[in-house]
Fold these 4 entries.
Entry 1:
Amino acid sequence: MDNTLITILLSAGILLVIAVLMALILGWANIAFHVPTDPKVAAVNEILPGANCGGCGFVGCSEYAEAVANGKAAATLCGPGGQDAANRIAETLGLDLGQTWPFKAVVHCSAKREQRLKQTPYFGEQSCAAANLVPGIQGCVYGCLGYGDCQDVCEYGAIDMVDGLAIIDVDKCTGCRACEKACPRGIITMIPFKTEEVLVVTCSNKDKGVLVKDVCTVGCIGCSACTKPADGLIEMVNDLPVVNYDKDSSGIDLHKSIEKCPRESLMFIGLHKDKKKAQGEPERIEANFATTVDQTEWRG
Amino acid sequence: MDTIVSLFLIFIGAALINNFVLHYFVGICPFIGVSRRVDLAFGMGCAVTFVIGIAATLSWTLTFYILRPEAPLSAWLWNSMGADPTTVVDLSILSYIAYIFVIASSVQFVEMYVKKFFPSLHRSFGVFLPLISTNCAILFACLEIMKNLQGGDQLWGLHHALALSLGGGVGFTIAIVIMAGLREELELCDVPKALKGPGIALLVAGILAMAFMGFTGVDRGVADAIRTLTQH
């Protein structure tokens, strides 16, 4: 036979033998090393969004799926999956969920940059975690610092920094709790949105009213005026009103509480802002690059 | 004695002087992708060292008996098929495809084995093990071994191949752990927006590579020192 032909035959033959050998070994290993997995875990894993955000308190979606399937965790912990995922998990595992609500993040501070007292000029690292270490960075030791650590960790673009204050878009918020962990002052918490609009206390200052007035123009002074019309729904704890979200709020006109507040420490935060905006949305203004480019801040 | 010295030199050469990542720039994808935290980077380094050792053993066997010029098994087949015996049989052209076969299937095999017998290790390796099957550092180690089996007086034995692969694995681990440490610090720096993430990581890797150039010539010095010691 010709040398070239033999080389081709030899190459093809050897590759074929290697391939068949490897296939046999892998096929045998697949059977010999088979690990029986619970089909329930796989089914739950299929339902979860796979974002591995860690909001449920487990390392990743697969760990959570295992815990849920074994009955070690509740089916409602997945923030990004929300109500839909919880329902489907409950259906798959035959659980009874009861009534559940979506949890969303809210900021318990409403003071914009010019509404709160600044004490020390700060030129350090532009992050809340670093700024929070500086004594006297801000008059209010409880409120929002405005460097946007929560905005940086939000993977869903739900947080905007407006005039030095974090504003959360609850429609975009999935309840993954990343911002709650990132905030060094702990003023972001998760609350259940049982209705489209939820009453939120937007101040975290636990000091007496006189001290609060020194450092902030909108903070809660602890006058407890909001508690009377709320019929037991709001209680004063450490000079701050606390809304009891477990109680049924139907039949109580919470607008009265907001009207009674002499400051701006209570407000409604609502879902589906987009729908409301669509009714009277202003026209889009085109950007004028002649004015914007020169003002670009370069932080190189 | 000479064997031990040469093994030591191959090991040091692969780990420090000709570091796979910082000298040859192979295995950059896990080097950039899994170097955000030191503990994960160390896990990746260990996984690569493990797989590189297995792949080197298998590919040395394959190369020595079948793929190199004048390999015994293919020479016997060559002659028994009635080819011209004066021509030297050389199946080196098959090396790439054969190595990819071997690496991919050995990684699969190792993953199944670890999943069955070491579930906790499997959980901590996580997605890294399957990722390694496409890691060019491992293919590079196989090709380096093949280069030293092409002919000449000194054909590499299995021990040389193992020294190279373990050295390469250790070198990869050193590089990725240093990189992870640097990147943990980088998180706190004010990096220009355009360079954030992999951009600044690649710049840092380049400077790190220049630092590793300082190891050039260390192998010869070490060899001389060992020879002088053994002579006395």
Note: Chain A has a mean pLDDT of 79.
Entry 2:
Amino acid sequence: MKIQFPTKDTKASEVSQDREDYEQFFTLSMDPLCVAGSDGYLKRVNPAFTQTLGYSSSELLSRPFLDFVHPEDVARTLEEMKGLSAGRPSLHFENRYRCKDGSWKWLAWNTEPFNEHGILYAVARDVTEKKNAEQAILQLNAELLAQTSTLAELNQELESFSYSVSHDLRAPLRAISGFAKALEEHLGTSLDPIGAGYLLRVRDAAERMGLLIDDLLKLSRLTRSEMNLKPVNLSEMAEKMMSTCRQLDPAKDIQFTVEPDIIVQADPALLEILMNNLIGNAWKFTSKCRSALIEFGRNVQQDGTIRYFVKDNGVGFDERYRHLLFGAFQRLHSQRDFPGTGIGLATVRRIVRRHDGEVFATSVIHHGATFEFTLGTPNPCPL
Amino acid sequence: MNKIILLIEDNPYDEELTLMALDKNNILNEVVVARDGEEALDFLFGSGPGSAADRKLLPTIILLDLKLPKVSGLDVLRKIRAESQTQSLPVVILTSSQEDKDLLESYSLGCNSYVRKPVDFAMFVEAARQLGLYWLLLNECPPDPN
């Protein structure tokens, strides 16, 4: 084996080899590298530097580098330079540089302090994309916050609106009803039957409007209430409601069928309102049937979702008007045939939607109606 | 008969209807009407002519509306419960609102009863009858602190 002892010559060749190595790295680096002087000018830049900003090397070296720094970042950059002059290295310092095409790039810098010759070495990385993504996230967050507060405001407004409806709309109704009654008594026997009939209608109408206001409030409360999820036995609920119905009219020929043990994860109070509306409707719309039939059960769809249904053989509805069925205060039957305010199915739809489900209605007129609903992942947040 | 009723009500129609409803039930007690919260507080805690202090007479029952100009019904109730001379006076909330929030707040502030004014006048008369019967006849009030 031949052992080489260091000589003056080999030292010199090693140094030149080192230089060659560093030159290679300097040229190959994908990140911008530079050498700068304490006079504020760049002394050398690598190809990645010129490629990143789009200037030629001589353009970059001909002006103080602060000329390329974004005006908003100049003060911070000067502050950082002070630290470098005082011998403190600078790590992960970020500022914006102007590109030749006028756009700005974010560069993150690692810089060693000025050496005894007033020279510093710096490595940069183009972090524009990361910065833009961060900015986008910040902006989205700000927008989200703004929207949340708008929603909270709207909710607040809705609440005070309901309050005002509840309080202020009822007062005039009371006056209409009360003074109509007072007028009736004041006129006594001098009031003829036609006049009495008119006054009766005034009071009836006032009372009906009172009911409508109450229903409207109930509907708005449904949306505002908090959800409390628990296992709910819908079969038991249906049984109980049906037996209440039966007690209302024991003479009525009606057959109830309930599929046992249907248990769902839902808000019990809301589901009770929902079932009450569907079964109450089935009861109401079979009131003119000779032998009525009301059924509660479930079907499994082809895709595996479960649909719960309440089915009756009552008067049904005209499917041409199905789109109106679930709107608030929409009615497909006259007040005379079937009384009601038209809030029941709107209520059903709201409750189903709050449980992230869907509701479906089918009917053959005069042969009954079927109402089906699904319950998805419940949505605990109001609105 | 020195049992007086304090009716705190800002709506003139409601005031008239309430007086009519009391009258229909032969409740002939004197009714002092305050048209806003401030008037009610002046009557109860002030010393001007006609005030409770001036007449040396506190109401037997207070009928209190919640939504009032200037000082709200809940604030009137709060003040009534905070002062020693009025803290045990029976207060019946008589209002249009049946918002849970109002019910909860009224009871937590110490109202004795909460009645929602019905739209139908016949029902209103009936409510007045029951209130008069209970609070003016059946119920024994705490002894007058004076």
Note: Chain A touches chain B at residues 162-163, 166-168, 170-175, 177-182, 203, 206-207, 209-210 (CB under 8 Å).
Entry 3:
Amino acid sequence: MTFLVLRANGPVELTVPDGDTTILQALLDAQEQVPDLAFRYGCRNERCGTCTVEVDGQRRLGCRDRLRAGQVVGPLSGFPVIKDLVVDRSRVAEQLRSVPVRPAVGTADGAWASLGRCIDCLACVADCPLFAAGRGTPVTFLKLQRAALEGARSEAVDAAVALGLTDACADCRGCRCSVGIRLIDEVIDPLLDAASDLP
Amino acid sequence: MQCLSADVVVIGAGAAGLAAAAAAAELGASVWLVSKEPPGTGDTKISTGLMSVPSEPVSLVDDMQRSGCVGDPALMQLVAGGAVEAHDWLGRVGLRDRGPLEDAMGGHSEARSVAHANRGLDVAWAASRQALRHERVRWLEDAWLVALDVGDAVRGAWIWHAPRGVLVHVAGPVVLATGGFGHLYHPHSDTMRSNTGEGHLAATTAGADLIDMEHIQFTPFGVVAPRSMVGLPLGEAVLAGPRGRLLDDHGEVLAEGFATWSRAAVAGRIARAIHEGRASASGGVWLDLGPNLDEACWADTFRGAWGHVLRRVRRSQGPAAARFEQPWEVAPTAHYCMGGVAIDGRGATAAKGLFAAGQLVGGVHGANRLGSTSLPTAVVTGRLAGAAAAATRVAGRGEPPRVRRRSDALRATRRLQQTCWAGLGPGRTAAGLLGVLEVVAELRAGAGDEGGGVWDTTLLASLELDGLLHCAEVTARAALRRTQSLGAHLRLDEVSA
């Protein structure tokens, strides 16, 4: 099977064995021939969130999603590219400092547990106009909404507003999640509602 | 060259490193948290998230020691005694649990493990919050450990920052929390790719001791095919239920009634069958859960508890296997390193100024770790080491190390991994172990040059290869010396006493 990778110096055609091929397996096979091909991966098991790339312009989890002949693999858009498929994600973790902390109360319930499915794959960040403008990201808002559910509602909403929630999110509705979290219903709208309730 | 400094330097950002950073910060220390992956993105995050919360720590210590007379009883007492507080500490930043598991996990004499809704994701996020809520904790990701800076004491670490392709000196007493070296067995491993043993190598070079290195835990049920999924975990022995059976490729029963067996006991039975040529063409044996379907409600209960395993089974082996109509093809997969750096009751190593925590530490789990004990280990040893490092003062800076870049690093790594899976895996012989040492010696001799650019995969692979070669050699030598099987260490060529 032959596919294309958008490398630092331009597109490169790579050929790997046919058969059951995830995007990540294709990249690992390609790296045997091209040892300086740069990409990230961690657990190979859909849990660590590090192997996100774009295939034909769509966000894909490398270890989960399939690659077909002729497709084009590129780095996650919206982020500075370091090399090949490796992007600079350091700004995302820095924002997480703004997430307020509360002691656990009760057991893991539906809404709180659902948000915990986030694997930080950053697929939602790639599309985000706020992130492009140097402000918040859907993944930060997700952690803030979780903190709101933990009892830190006003602090969490203040942090979200400071990161641009009320400037952009009501009209955008563009968040897409790789693991099935309904970001608009579960994160953005509850935060926007809370922001309009607070004085 | 960039120079950074803090009161404490922590290398590694899984639960152990995060706990160390948080504990140091709680005491007022400034911290540099340095890791290859972003904070929280270690084995903690991809784990089952189960945590032991023993009501009787003494009874947990008894269970931990049952694997054989290796390990450090004082460390076992420390971890068992601190396990409840470790879980509470994560609860203080919002970690909610789903309550206790009903059944005792394999090797435990009683049910004492709590589960979390999103398994390790919830635990890793809580540990991250404990560290990141302190402004005095700063971090550097995409950063590889090259060496420790050793003077009269360990006074910092030399770090390769991959995005810029530069060497960075980070000054301060060092807590190593770099995890295990499961990547030595890639793809027959369910651990993070980043587990490549740089911490073991740096600690040894600085004068710390490694102990119990021959004891590597292989969890019994790993995926055998397809290639992209080899080594991924398919749950614990307990999922076999009352009637699950292990069969060889001829349909002969290898084990029955093993739901309460330890990981080592089940993995050992499989490894022996594979060694005897009774494996499938893909190198596995067959786990048949079908007989349990006669038990009322068994399948529903199973789907509730092991849904994530069933999804992986369906994906790797098809819908009939996920309905238990066909047996699952399984083989052991590398899961945890019980051996590692020796520490005292404060988390201090034999090298002054150097502390260690988490999976990197040896002696906590004897010859066979029990399920749900690694996360308490990470938090307890991490907090100890972070607090002890915060009370340590060091000064000075040495000469930068030579960073050796070898053009064959990736190819050499793959050869080492194949060799170690064959010779240093779940079943071992003297001949196989000597073969590993020969290949290690040959690969060490590879030529290198200097330099390195932005995200230089060859240089990064070279740093990791050095760690893996060190761990392979020490583990093979320890395994050669232990001529009788014990815990997770299975000698197929042992002479019965």
Note: Chain B touches chain A through 58 residues (CB under 8 Å).
Entry 4:
Amino acid sequence: MTEFFQQLINGLSVGSMYALIAIGYTLVYGVLRFINFAHSDVFMVGAFMGMYIGRTSSKSSIGGGLMVMAGAMVICALLGILIERFAYRPLRSRSKLTVLITAIGVSLFLENAGQLIFGPNPQPFPNIFPSHTFQYDQVVLSSKDLVVLVVAIVLMGGLQFLVLKTKIGTAMRAAAFNPQAASLMGININNVISFTFGLGSALAAAGGILWAYKFPKIDPLMGVMPGLTAFVAAVLGGIGNIPGAALGGLVIGIIETFVKGSRWSTWSEAIAFVLLILILLFRPAGLLGTLQPEKV
Amino acid sequence: MLEVKNLTVNYGAICALRGISLEVKQGDIVTLIGANGAGKTTTLRAISGLLRAQGGEVLYEGRNIANLPAHKIVELGLSHVPEGRMIFANLTVLENLMMGAYLQKDRRVIEQELEYVFGTFPRLKERQKQVAGTLSGGEQQMLAIGRALMSKPKFLMLDEPSLGIAPLLVKTIFEKIVEINRQQGISILLVEQNANLALEISRYGYVLETGRIILQDQSSALRQNPQVKSAYLGGV
């Protein structure tokens, strides 16, 4: 039983990071109907920005850690907006496949630029939050998991508020449903799309920092696996659906962690894709998604 | 108020509008009738900026607005209720209306407009918390018109407001259109397949056929015109 709770905590912690990344995929899919494969590399850039900002102070404090996150989130939001503006927007009227291939190109560009600028070798990530261990019975809750969980919950709650209760959030939902009708309301679709990219990228940066804080070795290819897994999480939850992405992330994180702790541990990285195949076979709209009939 | 001069629109190699001209005066109701595929919807979409025009001018209050982006045109007070209503089915009725007032910064003005829309369409008030996709066709049309009114337009374009709606509601909606025109002084350009109704409430009408205006006259005269009668008014 102890082991079960221990693994559950680990799973929730990893899962909430997947959730943060998955939301970025789903947000962009919601307004533009394509998968931004460069998203996982924005996650990596977020971790590196966190490292550079975190190195400027040797003390670790909660406030300091939050500042590091805020800084990296702002930088990555700008990066996301730039990627959309210069790589995707010129191709807006082209087929989705063209944009998809461009996204893969941007992803490769960021990974290789990362190796050039940050260096190809793994680097240690500074301990930006104070560490402490809480123990209940045999179950250990490290401050790392606690930080990851709390930050992820706060960010996702904030996002949900933004999307459901604010004017720009409502405009995002309107534009996602029907961009033409949204423009007839006076909504500048380009601004909404930029905002969406900024938002998703900021969440990816937060995810990257949390990831680097929990697994403190970072390199320019660190985004590939978590990115793919989070993409699967977004599909699992129902692509385009924000609570779905969060749920998908948690489900995959927990299952993956339990598999890692079992005798099938070598399969842990494959399990996400097994889930992907199963969901596509039996519930292609995803856990929380609804299939929309294609209008003719 | 609105003057369209020699407007041309192509879809690829296909010519949808071959240089049409029309005019809507301040406070007027003008209708554009014609068969399916004549170019009625294309005309409205080109005026509101959803489509690029290849040639011609759209003068709104003396200014050429052809090829301005749609969100800039709304800002000038020109609102378009598109074909098929295009309500945001995933948002609530109230959220839809609030999106209509997207450009309005003044909360008081928004409140006033909301009150006016709810006064005009009490059904929307009853259903304001409901997700718009669950409304009936007629209610969705009311919502689409209400949403357009939320931007406090000076000029309103309606595309087939009677389409897919129960006959009883069609009558109500057309009465409301006249009321909006009379009470708020909003000029209206109405596109309709139901030519009878459209000519009844409008002052002036244009008949569109395969991208050209083939007839224009006072609506009352058009209703007596034998050509219009046989082609659009059911032949009697």
Note: The interface with chain B takes residues 167, 170-171, 173-174, 176-178, 180-189 of chain A (CB under 8 Å).
